[in-house]
């Protein structure tokens, strides 16, 4: 029904930047909130940042001032600009979206497959 595809991950040195994208496609009527999560080896998945359909944002304390979440509703795409990256930001980053679908008419949470971000010291 709905597919979320992340891109933009990779290997970067500490202090560098990356921009992640999450593109949604399928039988989409409307996308409500969208979030970025991450999971480091041996750790639980954690919320990194979220953005509502109206554009309100929230961030984990660990990324405030360094990461910026945004979305292009016309393109059903969400972004995460990551600056001043640290080795502790190394993780698989996942996007999550709460989507109203047309067939059938329902709302569900969808996840992307994840994109690896590795920050070297």
Structure write-up:
This protein is mainly beta and 121 residues long. The chain is built from no helices and eleven strands. A hairpin with a 4-residue loop joins strand 7 (67-72) and strand 8 (77-82).
Short description:
With 121 residues, the protein is mainly β. 0% of the residues lie in helices and 62% in strands. The chain starts with a strand and ends with a strand.
Quick tags:
single chain; 121 residues; mainly beta; 7-stranded mixed sheet; 4-stranded antiparallel sheet; 0% helix
- What is the number of beta strands? 11
Mean pLDDT: 96
Oligomer: single chain
Number of helices: 0
> Quick one: overall form?
elongated
Tell me the major beta sheet: 7 strands, mixed
Walk me through the topology.
Layout: E1 2-7, E2 10-13, E3 18-26, E4 28-39, E5 46-51, E6 57-59, E7 67-72, E8 77-82, E9 91-101, E10 106-111, E11 115-120
Parallel strand pairs: 2-11
Antiparallel strand pairs: 1-3, 3-8, 4-5, 4-9, 5-6, 7-8, 9-10, 9-11
